[in-house]
UniProtKB/TrEMBL annotation:
Residues 24-274 form the EAL domain. This is EAL domain-containing protein. The chain holds residues 560 to 833 of 833 of the full protein. It comes from Erwinia sorbitola. Keywords: Membrane, Transmembrane, Transmembrane helix.
Length: 274
């Protein structure tokens, strides 16, 4: 009897796995179609500059308006896109949309786009970005690329080369989710980053924890020591805004500053032109 039960469980497990594989294949097909047929949506979250007390940049964040499942967040489809190679097509759409909408609707503002670490292994990345800048007419100095520090782990020589080519064009690089990755800090010296974005997990506790505040103060100091622009992510309260301004954090982003919204909702931003 015990043997039979074991066999049944295995059969269930097997069926479950088969279903998951089928679901994944379906979802891959749907994402491929979705990219092709215009189901991706772009929202923009403002980034506030504490020195000029104004919005100087936006971060482009992708969404997928799925015909059955509704509006999907990046965590629900970016991993699939990375595993299936669809990330290139997705990033092309993201880069083109972010650059053309910024050029058209947000005069003078910079836009930052998230790329996956693995994309720096693609030899074509430099030309793809150069093409987008030419097609959209966005000045290269207004494009920033956000990537996690894990980008430094795979083929560092190749990654560095691509980054330097893009830097020569005028594009900037920000380390996203700073403090959560697996690289040693030595990459701050060897890779040409322009800024760091402190992960929201460090910002969240500063309201009521002195030690959390000291950690953020030290991270800001570290960034400044490397001449990097420092952004705090996940600013949700007035107190966080005041404290981070006091600590001379260069830029702030988060729900308290502004939610990610479609470009139309950003047109009346009170901005200083940079
Ligand atoms: P991220 O680049 O670190 O983006 C910040 C995330 O935090 C966004 O989530 C944003 O909506 C959210 N956020 C902003 N302010 C606050 C706040 O005050 N509190 C809290 N709790 N959250 C806040 P979202 O849009 O779900 O994006 C999640 C991640 O997906 C992004 O993290 C980024 O790594 C990735 N992602 C987004 N768009 C793209 C894309 O076009 N390409 C790639 N490769 N990845 C993307
Ligand atoms: Mg980001
Ligand atoms: Mg982040
Ligand atoms: Mg992230």
């Amino acid at each position: 009897k015990a043997k039979n039960e074991g066999r049944n469980q295995w059969a269930f497990f097997q069926r479950d796995m088969d279903e998951k594989i089928v679901q994944r294949r379906e979802m891959e097909q749907e994402l491929r179609e979705g990219i092709r047929t215009g189901q991706l949506r772009m929202v923009y979250q403002p980034r506030y500059d504490t020195r000029c007390a104004c919005i100087t940049a936006v971060e482009a964040l992708v969404r997928w308006q799925h015909p059955q499942h509704g509006l999907l967040m990046p965590d629900q489809f970016i991993p699939l896109a990375e595993e299936t190679g669809l990330i290139n097509a997705l990033s092309d759409w993201v880069l083109y949309t972010a650059c053309s909408e910024t050029q058209r609707y947000l005069p003078g503002l910079a836009v930052s786009v998230n790329l996956s670490a693995g994309e720096f292994q693609d030899n074509g990345l430099y030309n793809r970005i150069k093409d987008v800048l030419e097609k959209t007419g966005l000045k290269s100095s207004r494009l920033e690329i956000e990537v996690t520090e894990n980008v430094t782990l795979q083929d560092p020589v190749k990654t560095q080369k691509t980054m330097l080519q893009l830097k020569a064009l005028g594009v900037k690089f920000l380390i996203d989710d700073f403090g959560t990755g697996f690289a040693s800090l030595s990459y701050l010296r060897t890779f040409p980053f322009d800024g760091i974005k402190l992960d929201k997990s460090f910002i969240f506790p500063i309201d009521d924890s002195v030690s959390a505040r000291q950690i953020v103060e030290n991270m800001i100091g570290l960034g400044k020591a490397y001449a990097l622009n420092v952004t705090a992510e996940g600013v949700e309260t007035q107190i966080q805004l005041e404290q981070l301004t006091l600590l001379q954090c260069d830029s702030l982003q988060g729900y308290f500053i502004g939610m990610p919204v479609p470009i139309e909702s950003l047109r009346d931003l009170n901005t200083c032109r940079i």
